[in-house]
Queue: 2 jobs
Job 1
Amino acid sequence: MLLKHYIPHSHEDEKIILLLRRHWFIILRKLLLWAVVAIMPVLFYLLAFDIIEPLFAGGLTRPLFVLFVSVYYLYTWLFAFHSFVDYYLDVWIVTNKRIINIEQKGLFVRHVSEQKLHRVQDVTAELKGIFSTLLDYGTVYIQTAGEQARFVFKEVPRPQEVAKKVIKMSEQEKRFQHLLEQNDDIHTETV
Amino acid sequence: MTAGIPLALLYYLYLAFILVFLLFTLFNLYHLVRFGFLTIGNIVMIGAYLLGTIAMLLLSWQYISQIDWTATIPIIQLGVPGI
């Protein structure tokens, strides 16, 4: 599978069941904000044209204006791209064996944690707010018995469906683990 | 006689901003290539970003190259002219 090498130390028989990112509305909202930041100086220039135009007649103001506009738009472009990188690299993966939480925090912090599916204790889906309800995205809280007690899938699409799937997978894995333990017990008794 | 600061100082300051911009661009691209998924969406975004960046830098250069960077910005007038 093409995606398999993205799973940290993946096992032979491990399959990706869910690969989740935040809902598309989250990145759209951020990109729209950067679009507003880009449009604002143009609007300001058009509205205050009569006041601004004479200022550019001076010897210093024109070079300053050119450099400022160039830096402003390059950095707006960079920050918009960084918003996409931040969105794209936050991934939650559910395989048939475990849950993996990969979060990119800024440019220099990358947080990867995982938990075995059979250690899942409780799964809760939460939809909060108008957009969340209308577009069906929300947060899924996964309570586990491990060191990192809670996994949070933030603003993922169809949270209730995701929660159901995680519960189903976890129960299957628990049954499988139980059978393995029974098999081990029988084996040690015969030895 | 007029004392002033060279306009080229602004240009060097601008170049410093561009250097930081390019560094952060590299960090972002590295993250996408190293940790991102090889999907069409990812490749399209990287391509679009690079095209946009090149277009903006070329457009900036068009305006910047028209400015005389050897000029100075007058700040104080030394002496009285004509005496």
Job 2
Amino acid sequence: MDNWWGDYEVAEDQTLRWQLGPKTLWITRGDSEWRVAGTEGPDRLASRLIIAEPAEEPAGDDDNIDVRRFASRSGNRSLRLEPALPDLPVVVRTNKPFVVPAMEETTLFLSAPLWLRVYLDGREVEQVDAPIARPSDTWFGPDTMTGELCYALRTSARLHLENLPRRPHRAISAVRIQNNAPSALPIEKLKVPVPHLSLFVSDEGHLWTEALTLEREDDSGGTKVRLDDRPRQIVATERIARPRKEMSRGFLLDAFGKLFVKKGRNYNE
Amino acid sequence: MSEVLSNLGVSDFLTSGRMLGLGRAVLILVVGILVARLASRTAERGLRRRVSAQEAMLVRRLSYYVMLMLVVTSALHQLGFKFGVLLGAAGVLSVAIGFASQTSASNLISGVFLIAERSFVVGDLLDVNGRLGFVISIDLLSVKLRTFDNLMMRVPNEEMIKNTVLNLTRFPIRRLDLQVGVAYKEDTERVRKILFDVAERNPICLDEPSPLFIYKGYGDSALELQFSVWAKRENFLMLRNTMQEEIKRTFDEHGVEIPFPHRTLYTGSVTEPFPVRMVNDGA
């Protein structure tokens, strides 16, 4: 798969177009400004990929296209695109209720949505940091008063890597769950702290996060989170994005949750 | 000149200790107020990280007024006031003052309870007697709110204690209850599916807690349904607009009828029949 991230040159008054799954991105180098336009198609799981194709600039009066303008007098024509992980944790559901018995371990694979960062004029700070496909918001917590806002993954976690579809705008994460507690661990949904993870690229051009281990020691309290320095399932990788947040030592996470109620059969009235 | 001054008793006054006392009193007052202001602000700044904004504000005000009282008392003392006499008079006056300041005292005590109870803090959005406003400050006598149309609303603390006050921003997520009416001919299972699809497509509508569908009953002209969706509280208004717009659009697309009240007119035997016009369509 071709990599869509990296450095590009745009000539004056030229527009380049990228198609990253559902997202279409146009970047135009104007006389003394950059214009970055983007729009998102309805299918969040689309996997089309077009990289830096010369195109016409989209008409400015289309409400579905979000246009941002950045002043630039330097005459610099370079820009860089980078993938990034979401700014909030993601919550993934298991296909059916899934139980990890006591003293057992398992690995689940999931694909996290990516954000797109645009650096103009060779600057160190990104000018655009936006989701490629905006995921749905969701709430992760024991009730509606305490908890944390997260993004919901529409796809479920898989036990086998080969069942996970590869898409250019998503990154694969392997989560090892160790249940060291004396009781079984039922998992209906799982929170993955993606803002603390970094991105790696595999030989085949797929994006991965480092391997993550969630250790459950006992029935009470949080889960211990351990990060490897790189993904475990692939070889020869290069780190291309740093985490948004640094993980402190002894980071504890409330990672396992139960659904409030089954969808559509809701009794919280 | 000196004769005139001596006749007026000014020179006596100037040379007496009273002038000195007045000077001291003014000095105490000026320096005291400055120190009180500075000390109370420093106390507020120091506490801001550890306690909430309104508690820090309360500490500043209380410490300022206590220091101000001490300053005024010592200034009066310099002027020769005897506090024993004043306190005696205060005993007699307290009954009268008590009656006169009943409302203020009640508000003051309510204010202390409001702050201790912590049901809302500065910046929260409250619904007080059907009026919405953001809390600007919680003072000893009243709570000041800024309404959506940018008016300042002052609500006496006593009223806040006595009445039900809704805090709309206490919890991070909120539920929006949409009342949807569909025609009797519609298949409710299909309508339910359309509504869930609309919710799923809207990224600001929370995936979990999942939307709630309630069959409310048989209305006069429509099947009454309630569809409740959740959102982050900051997105509440956007959710309200986007959901209603999208539901209407999707219902139109799928041909689901949103009825309005129907009236069937019965003319009865005593009224004239309805006029009927024949239209020739040219066929």
